[in-house]
Amino acid sequence: MIKNTDDLETPVIKINGISYIVNLNEIKDFIAQCKPFMDVNGNEFEIMTQTIADALIDSINPELPIKQLKSQLKFLREVGFLLKNLIAVNE
Q1: pLDDT of the chain, 91 residues: tens digit per residue
Q2: Other C-beta atoms lying within 10 Å of the C-beta of residue 4
Q3: What residues does each domain of the chain span?
Q4: Neighbours of 69 (CB within 10 A)
Q5: How far apart are CA 88 and CA 86, in angstroms?
Q6: DSSP line for 15-66
Q7: 84 DSSP 8-state letter
Q8: pTM of whole model > 0.70?
Q9: Cβ-contact 69, 60 below 8 angstroms
């Protein structure tokens, strides 16, 4: 663990032998930036990313094959799932 500027422990995770630092201050700032325009409790992050994905699908040119958006939509779905499971309210 590495200490960061707010005295939060910064976790380090290893994936396939590569170390990644999880910046808790950035997560804290992200939550603070989202609070003014959305609820950040529960499934709201996942719902927001699904809403964005649905809007993209609904507004694309009908001539454009959905295959061209597939990886972007999968990424958006994974981001929503990550945020939903990364951040939980501690009451």
Answers
A1: 455 555 567 788 899 999 988 888 888 899 899 999 998 887 888 888 889 888 888 888 878 777 777 888 888 888 888 888 777 666 5
A2: 14
A3: 1-35, 38-91
A4: 15
A5: 7
A6: ETTEEEE--HHHHHHHHHHHTTTS--STTHHHHHHHHHHHHHHHHS-TTS-T
A7: H
A8: no
A9: yes
